[in-house]
Design goal:
Distance between the termini: 112 Å
Helix content: 40-55%
Number of domains: 3
Order of helices and strands: HHHHHHEEEEHEEHEEH
Length: 341
């Protein structure tokens, strides 16, 4: 009976391995703890069965069995390695968790899982089938170099995606602005590219390798409120403080802008013709800039009209009389009168 034990061992291990796979799938992805327990139980049973018969579970022995039993032994060891890999992956999925950083945790899990599958594949080839792993690894290295050169753009996007995931310069739904002028809300981010929904309601797909090289401004952090500036020129027929008070009052009457912190009418400069004023106000979101700016222009125009203020032409629009056509009385620039517009 003892001589028959090894020949019965492999069919038992094969049966345990197949049943373990069926039960593992029956648990479903929603029960990771139950899946891990199933893997541990069946892997332990398979290991004990092999060791109790004096059989090494991880590697085959030359001339161990012949005929059908040889195939059963090979399949039993392959199943043993598969269950070992799945049990390890179960631990990784369940216990490698980064609090409040699910993307980073998922990335680390995927990298470890890929390493586990690669290690198990090489172990099966080397230990079960007896193939020379050193030669295989060397050949794989040459193949990897060839593939790396052929897929360098794709690999660049892949590794840039990993770097962006770990660095977390933005998250889904963040509003970002790139150095090349692209601006919008991030709607999708994967290992190859990032998709941005622009204010024009177009989706811009930016490769991660290109995104990693661009300067990026996250307009959502620390919050999504956004500063907007609007420069206007008011004819200098009033004291600058009076002009600033009228414009500040106009800003306070606007509904689209944030009143805390309060908007500011900053006096930026003055000349013989006009006072330069920069209106500084915040909006709740970058998407509100256009309606807010439209409202500010309308309200400021009405307030200036009701308080007798006039808009001045830009400084570069002044007309200067050439030297050969003017005398001392014509030495100053000719400016359009305040009531001309």
């Amino acid at each position: 009976m003892a001589g028959d034990l090894p020949s019965l061992t492999f069919p038992i291990v094969d049966l345990l391995g197949v049943i373990g796979i069926i039960v593992w799938h029956a648990q479903g992805k929603g029960r990771p703890t139950a899946r891990l327990i199933v893997q541990i139980l069946f892997f332990t049973a398979m290991t004990v069965t092999l060791l109790s018969s004096g059989i090494l579970p991880h590697r085959g022995t030359a001339g161990e069995l012949d005929g059908v039993n040889a195939y059963l032994g090979t399949s039993a060891r392959i199943l043993w390695w598969v269950h070992l890999a799945w049990a390890t992956i179960g631990f990784v999925r369940l216990y490698i968790v980064l609090d409040r950083r699910p993307q980073e945790a998922r990335l680390i899990q995927d990298l470890i899982v890929a390493g586990v599958y690669l290690g198990v594949t090489l172990s099966i080839i080397g230990f079960v089938f007896g193939a020379p792993i050193g030669t295989l690894v060397a050949t794989s290295g040459v193949v990897a170099i060839i593939l790396g050169l052929a897929l360098q753009n794709t690999l660049g996007d892949l590794f840039s995606g990993v770097a962006l995931t770990l660095g977390r310069p933005f998250s889904i739904e963040d509003w970002i602005q790139l150095a090349d002028g692209t601006e919008g809300r991030v709607i999708q981010n994967n290992w190859r590219s990032t998709q941005i929904l622009t204010p024009a309601h177009n989706v811009v797909i930016v490769p991660n390798s290109a995104l990693a090289k661009l300067s990026l401004t996250n307009l959502t952090r620390p919050d999504e409120s956004h500063l907007v500036t609007l420069v206007i020129r008011i004819v200098a027929d009033r004291h600058p403080s009076a002009i600033g008070a009228v414009l500040t009052s106009a800003l306070k009457d606007c509904r689209y802008i944030v009143q805390e912190p309060p908007p500011v009418a900053a006096l930026k400069g003055i000349d013989a013709i006009a006072v330069d004023v920069e209106l500084q106000f915040r909006v709740l979101s970058p998407a509100d800039r256009t309606p807010a700016r439209n409202e500010v222009i309308d309200v400021v125009s009405r307030h200036c009209g009701s308080h007798g203020l006039h808009f001045a032409v830009p400084a570069h629009a002044y007309l200067v009389v050439p030297n050969e056509m003017r005398d001392d009385s014509q030495a100053r620039p000719l400016a359009i009168l305040p009531g001309a517009f």
